[in-house]
Design goal:
With 260 residues, this protein is an alpha/beta fold. It has 2 domains: 206 residues, NAD(P)-binding Rossmann-like Domain (Rossmann fold, 3-Layer(aba) Sandwich); 36 residues, no CATH class. Helix content is 46%, strand content 14%. A 7-stranded parallel sheet has the order 3-2-1-4-5-6-7, with helices on both faces. Helix 1 links the parallel strand 1 and strand 2. The model has no long low-confidence stretch (mean pLDDT 96).
């Protein structure tokens, strides 16, 4: 299937590794000119080089910038004034407990996991509306629908982004702009490595056992593959997905227990 992305421009935040990189790779395979982003110049340049090798003929740029800062976002929009596809992403706050979630922690989570996405939408949506085409995909978390006791900080910030994205989606739909959220859980990425090491430290088990326990919590009994996530992102960015907006797509191996 031709997703109609050839010649489109895409910016993928926090894409030097993990799910962000997977989205960039899938978009590049579909013919989009992709700009990668991250804070570490050497790591980002290596990711861009790897993507060019993985996808022969891919048009790849990179912008070193911290999306959680105004200066970083200004650097991005200066280097890339207009995009057709915007994929927002960022590392979530650490697990914790109620006693850890003071005002600074709450505000910090919003600044890291909600504000950057909204600010990038504010920068790019006007151009998308004028061109009558735009695709925005926010990488959030399954915790938005299925909060875990220790993930309240992440849930609160990402739920805030989910709410404002829904509002934006209704305003821009008539101009050919869609806004959707991807809600991952248990993918084989560096983030899951972090969670496994945390389990190793807490339970006194080895890494293999930690990953076995993590996989056992998924209905599919395995971790998700990054390429599965990336391809889902590419479809939501496609010409064919123009009638899908304001949605939250679970990518969790069938684990979500609810109906909606």
């Amino acid at each position: 299937m031709d997703l109609g992305l050839t010649g489109r421009t895409a910016f993928v935040a926090a894409s030097s590794q993990g799910l962000g990189y997977a989205c960039a790779r899938s978009l590049a395979r579909e013919g989009a000119a992709v700009t990668l982003n991250g804070r570490d110049e050497a790591k980002l340049a290596a990711a861009a080089a790897a993507l060019e090798q993985e996808v022969p003929g891919a048009r790849v740029r990179h912008v070193t910038a911290d999306v959680t800062t105004a200066a970083g976002r200004a650097r991005i929009t200066s280097a890339l004034p207009d995009v057709d596809v915007l994929v927002t992403n960022g590392a979530g706050p650490p697990p914790g407990r109620l006693e850890d979630w003071d005002e600074d922690a709450l505000v910090g989570a919003l600044r890291a996991n909600a504000v950057p996405a909204v600010e990038l939408m504010r920068a790019y949506v006007p151009g998308m509306r004028a061109r009558r085409f735009g695709r925005i995909v926010n990488i959030t978390s399954a915790m938005v629908k299925s909060p875990a006791p220790d993930m309240g900080l992440s849930t609160s910030a990402r739920a805030a982004l989910t709410a404002v994205s829904k509002s934006i989606s209704k305003d821009v739909a008539a101009d050919g702009v869609t806004v959707n959220n991807l809600l991952p859980e248990r993918f084989d990425t560096p983030r899951q490595e972090f969670m496994a090491r945390r389990l190793v430290a807490a339970e006194g088990i080895d890494r293999d056992e930690a990953f076995r326990r993590i996989a056992s919590t998924v209905a599919a009994q395995r971790l998700g593959r990054p390429e599965e996530f990336g391809d889902a992102c590419a479809f939501l960015c496609s010409a064919q997905a123009g009638y899908i907006s304001g949605q939250n797509l679970q990518l969790d191996g069938g684990s979500y227990g609810g109906l909606l």
